[in-house]
Amino acid sequence: MSKLRNPVARSPLLRKGGPHERSASSIRAGYRKTIEAGIDAFQGLDPGEIRNDKRRKHK
């Protein structure tokens, strides 16, 4: 007769382990931040003088 195992330890969800990677949304946010910084640099804006009303708001 087989010994019953801990069902939590044998969960299929736990087999998804591996190296942690950035989520797709965080990668997109990083691209967006890089693009906005490039646009600000092109327009000659200093990061210290940018106010929220000068930048386009994202949803």
Annotation keywords:
59 residues, 1 helix, mainly alpha
Describe the structure.
The protein is mainly α. The chain has a domain at 23-59. The chain is built from one helix and no strands. The mean pLDDT is 78. Residues 1-29 are annotated as: Disordered.
How far apart lie the N and C ends? 58 Å
Mean pLDDT: 78
The percent range for strand residues is under 5%
Task: Specify the structural class.
Answer: mainly alpha
Radius of gyration: 23 Å
Envelope shape: rod-shaped
> What's the β-strand tally?
0
Q: What's the total helix number?
A: 1
* Low-pLDDT ranges: none
Helices and strands, in order, run as H
Largest sheet at a glance?
none
Helix content: 25-40%
Region (Disordered): 1-29
List the helices and strands and how they pair.
Elements: H1 24-42
Put the structure in a nutshell.
Residues 1-29 are annotated as: Disordered. The chain has 59 residues and is an all-alpha fold.
